[in-house]
Amino acid sequence: MMLKEADGLGLRIVVISGYRQPEIQEFLYQRYRKVFGRKALDIIARSGHSEHQLGTAVDLDSWQNFTRLGKRFESTPEGRWLLENSWKYGFILSYPKGKKKITGYDYEPWHYRYVGKEHAKKIKEMDITLIEYLESLYQENF
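User: That's the sequence. What structure does it adopt?
Assistant: C-alpha cells below.
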C-alpha cells in the first residue's frame, strides 16, 4: 500500500532487500568485515542480530539510485517522502541520523522496519527510536 501510494504521486520506490536467510546475512557481514574491518559492526549486523532476519525490515531506494544504497537517498524525493509518511503505513526508520549511540548502527536512510501503524505513529509523535520506544513501554509496565 505504501509503495502504491508513493507511485501514485510519481515517486518510484524499489525494494532492494527484505528477509535475509542467516547464511546470506553472515556472507554480507564477512564481506563488509574484509572491506571495513571492525567498522563493519557499525554498518551491518552479524547473522542472528539483523532486523532483516526477523522479516520485519526492508531496504528501500529510489528508482534513480537503484541498488546504490547510500546516504544520498535522504535527499531524493522518495527518501524525503518515506521519512515523512512511512509511519502512516506502520514503518519507521530503524537507524535515524544522530542516533548511533542508541541504535548501535550508522545512519541508514534506506532501512525501514515494520512495527505496525499504532506503534509507528507513537514513535513518530515522540520523535524517538524503536529502542527508546520499547524502553518507554517497559518503564510503563514494570
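The beta strands are 13-17, 57-62, 91-95, 108-114.
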